[in-house]
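Hi Y.,

Following your request, here is the sequence exactly as I used it, all 162 residues.
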Amino acid sequence: MEIAVCRAADLALLDECIGSPGVDSSHARRFARQEAGGGVYLVAWLDGRPVGHGEVIWGGCADPEVRAALPGCPELNGLGGALIRRAEELARERGRTALGLGVAADNPRAADLYARLGYRPLTDYVDRWSYVDHDGVTRECVDPCTFLTKELTSSPLDVKPS
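Below is the corresponding structure, written out as tokens. Let me know if you'd prefer a different format.
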């Protein structure tokens, strides 16, 4: 598997292989944020096809409780293990000392993965987001979440397995 920063040419294949809800592609939104300098959008490739994706949002989580608990902490979004390790490398390269992500209360598999990777609970919050569905209706989503953080060491080898 190869992890690469998303390119404009990747968006159509991402939409085809890893759909997103609604008509306004979350891939395009994440890529636009990357182009504006607000994050980096990573894609996992296997045999020329995208098999995973995720984002590091340099400005952090939008929730005010999370921002107050750990100001300036970049947020990971939608990442699996290999993508998280690459995101941590990128954050270290930018001089960041912590990284965080939200996990929905109804997603224990993801919470277990993040715990194994060294992420610990910081605060509970409610994630709110929306998208426009294929009928043109804006759908509001509300997810109870926990924001998890990890102090970044100088090297991923410094992390002890849990």
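The mean pLDDT is 89.

Thanks again,
Q.
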